[in-house]
Amino acid sequence: MKPAYFALVLIFALTARIPAQQPHIRRLDGTHITTAKAEDLARRTLAENHVTGAQIAVLNNGHLVWAESFGLRTVDPKQPMQNTTTTWCASITKSVFATYVMQLSERGELPLDEPIPLLLPEPLYTYEPYRDTASELVRDPRWATITPRMLLSHTSGLANFASGEPDKKMHLHFTPGTRYSYSGEGMNLLQFVIEQRLHKPLDELMQQAIFTPLHMDHTGLIFRESFASDIADRFDENEKFISQTRRDRARAAGSMTTSATDLASFLTALFDNRIVQPATLNRMLTPAITINTEHQFPTLDEAKDAEAKSVGLAYGVGWGLLTRTPYGPAFFKEGGSDGTQDYLICFERTRDCMILLTNSDNGELAFRPLLEGILGDTATPWNWEGYNREAIIASREPHSNGSVR
């Protein structure tokens, strides 16, 4: 046997014994988990917690490294959840909307610090959608100080929704800009202002500005016929059908349906400065208000807890922020209601992210083990978010005083 030929045979024999490197995910602490192990962990965790269907995506260095779907998108008939399935992402809508608002700010089309009354040509209560709800609000002198930035950072003083107020009207519960209190009402108000100024519905504006350019083909603020063959139904804690997923009216507070891979594309573009400029993204992720409350919900509860301080919990422009974690600063957004539980978090230094979308009220039961086991996220404020299993179970017990997210 010739030496050169023998050497080739030897190399082939040696390399044949080395298993091909399995695809892997880099955790926040620098360790790795193979995608096969991540899939196994996710499958077991979701099944144990009776999560009907789920999508998970992970980014390392700002780019998608793993995406997988589990369970069912519909039960009757049984159809599997797929990476292409459009799923209601609830309040994650707010952060994507806020990013669009920052585009408008960059173009000089919406000043973030101009009082809302000055951004409308007529008093708020004269518009049909607010005729029955804004009459008391506009009499409050503090109304004249509320700005888009306050609405996006949940510091306006408005309750989550006027429908939850005793008289079903909008009220200010504290001086705007002085504390954090989550408000979907504020997001919808800002949507209304933008639509009045630009004379187009929000779903068209965001489709043109973000979804179409980024090829987010499974994303929309309202239902499209192209979604019909691959859209997730929603299920309760007993895995009973609640509703089909169809939103016919755009709501900045939470009407968006999407997929985990579409959200991954959005985050990649955000990191790559293809949605807003670096300075704009920095402004979004700079704390507008610090948070020291024990829980995010109920929204006006002022009880304090050390957990918020330990992770440097704050809110920026449209994103929740963790300013003090072992892995550097992070931004996050959650969503959950009526048969969906969703969460995403990104760590800025490494650009590592994890996205979880579910079509089940049980989704939040799986969040902590999945975030810790796959991404190595030990920074999410589990109590503040309401993601501790014991607390969730307790809130579902008969006569419980727990609140529903």
What's the short story on this structure?
The chain has 405 residues and is of the alpha+beta class. The protein has helices spanning 3-16, 35-48, 92-106, 116-119, 148-152, 184-198, 202-211, 260-271, 278-284, 306-310, 363-375, 382-385, 389-396; strands at 24-26, 32-34, 53-60, 63-74, 79-80, 87-88, 234-235, 241-243, 257-258, 289-290, 313-315, 320-322, 330-336, 341-347, 352-358.
Outline the structure in words:
This protein has helices at 3-16, 35-48, 92-106, 116-119, 148-152, 184-198, 202-211, 260-271, 278-284, 306-310, 363-375, 382-385, 389-396, and strands at 24-26, 32-34, 53-60, 63-74, 79-80, 87-88, 234-235, 241-243, 257-258, 289-290, 313-315, 320-322, 330-336, 341-347, 352-358. The model is unreliable at 5-19 and 399-405 (pLDDT under 50). The strands form four sheets. Strands 5-4-3-15-14-13-12-11-10 form a nine-stranded antiparallel β-sheet, with helices on both faces. A two-stranded antiparallel ribbon has the order 1-2. A two-stranded antiparallel ribbon has the order 6-9. It is α+β, with helices and mostly antiparallel strands and 405 residues long. It has a single domain (24-396), classed as 3-Layer(aba) Sandwich (Beta-lactamase), CATH 3.40.710.
